[in-house]
Amino acid sequence: MAAEPPSRLSYRTTGSTCLHPLSELLGIPLDQVNFVTCQLFALFAAFWFRLYLRPGKTSPDVRHAFATIFGIYFIIFCFGWYSIHLFVLVLMCYGIMVTASISNVHRYSFFVAMGYLTICHISRIYIFHYGILTTDFSGPLMIVTQKITTLAFQVHDGLGRRPEDLSADQHRLAVKVKPSLLEYLSYLLNFMSVIAGPCNNFKDYIAFIEGRHIHMKLLEVNWKQKGFHDLPDPSPTGAVIHKLCITLMSLLLFLTLTKSFPVTFLADDWFTHKANFLSRLCYLYIVMQASKPKYYFAWTLADAVNNAAGFGFSGVDKDGNFCWNLLSNLNIWKIETATSFKMYVENWNIQTATWLKRVCYERVPWYPTVLTFILSALWHGVYPGYYFTFLTGILVTVAARAVRNSYRQHFLSSKALKIVYDVLTWAVTQLAVSYTAAPFVMLAVEPTISLYK
Fold first, then answer.
1. Cα–Cα nearest to 300, from 39, 34, 74, 32
2. Spatial CB neighbours of 451, under 8 Å, sequence gap ≥ 6
3. Which H or E element spans position 323?
4. What is the pLDDT of residues 123-170, one digit of tens each?
5. Which residues partner with 348 through β-bridges?
6. Which candidate, 15, 37, 17, places its Cα nearest to that of 81?
7. Which residues are bridge partners to 315 per DSSP?
8. pTM to 2 decimals?
9. pLDDT tens digit string along 100-136?
10. Which of 127, 189, 228, 314 has its CA 20 to 30 A from that of 205?
11. Residue 442, burial from CB neighbour count under 10 angstroms (0-12, 13-18, 19+)
């Protein structure tokens, strides 16, 4: 009897299939191979972009065009015809940008972008059965949604509000001239951030394209007081190498630790009904630790790509070292040593937290914490697990704040007590985060309820 042909479900994708042999060789889904390939290609393109399309040699329009064309190619390579969703949303929102009144441009942009993103989330989950057999195009769409709304609010701040009504941060980032179509497309679709982000500010991006980015950041930190006699020209090479080392380590952990401790075990009958409480707690922590390397890999590589192009310089630290963490999306050391839920959240997905703060938390007149958590859940998607996580996160945030305010002062009288407090709060924080975030990676209702029982 003839052998059955291999199933195509393992590599079903709307993107390019030219790397399917490599996908089979590595045993990694094709869409993930396409993603990593594009990011590695973007890394080399970023170095070339910085060296051969320097602002002094190349006009801003050429830099915008190159960044946009390569970004569009990457999107089509990874997602094929699904990339239409991205282009439709970008063009619709540019139409809003140029036609809507300044008093409403931020509202229309926000509701159209979030509405379109939500429709796409719903279609992937409830029409295509949790997106299992479809390419996940929601990642780039989520990043573009952040940028669309960020720019719309900053244009509103620059053209529709009085300077005295703005916070210092809003005043610094306010955009006083509407972007051209080329600037808009470049900001949203540039090859450095279109696949994996992160979100950034329009003024920072335009300063980078025009060659003012590093000079502007040095002026903000007063570089002469940092001991420099001439305007320095910091190189990102060291920062890129450091981040690539972290990326490689994260990839190794993903290929070993993550596959050894799958999230699916949290819904296993033995785990939910037979394991004792301590075993369940320990394994929950291990599984949630094992789920992190893929985020560390993707976000750190994306940061390295931007740095390689010369974007992401944030200034000079207290020791006189150049810093390239303007676009960093996480601080791994602070995450793993966090002694409070707040500290953990502030160092995880940093740019998304900043976006939520700037478009929601600082602007809504009531219940800012609750509405920010709801927006965060809606932006992430409509998987039921996301809402379990973010609703639990609200309760944990309030409880942690109350406990800290009530008990922390009792442990500050001696160094030994402070160490005891730090160790206890570290353990509680890590377990609380594991408990809170478990539904986020389990996605569905049934395994989440089983875990919580």
1. 39
2. 266, 267, 272, 284, 438, 439, 442
3. strand 322-323
4. 877 765 544 445 678 899 999 999 999 999 999 999 999 999 999 999
5. 330
6. 15
7. 323
8. 0.91
9. 999 999 999 999 999 999 999 888 777 655 444 456 7
10. 228
11. buried
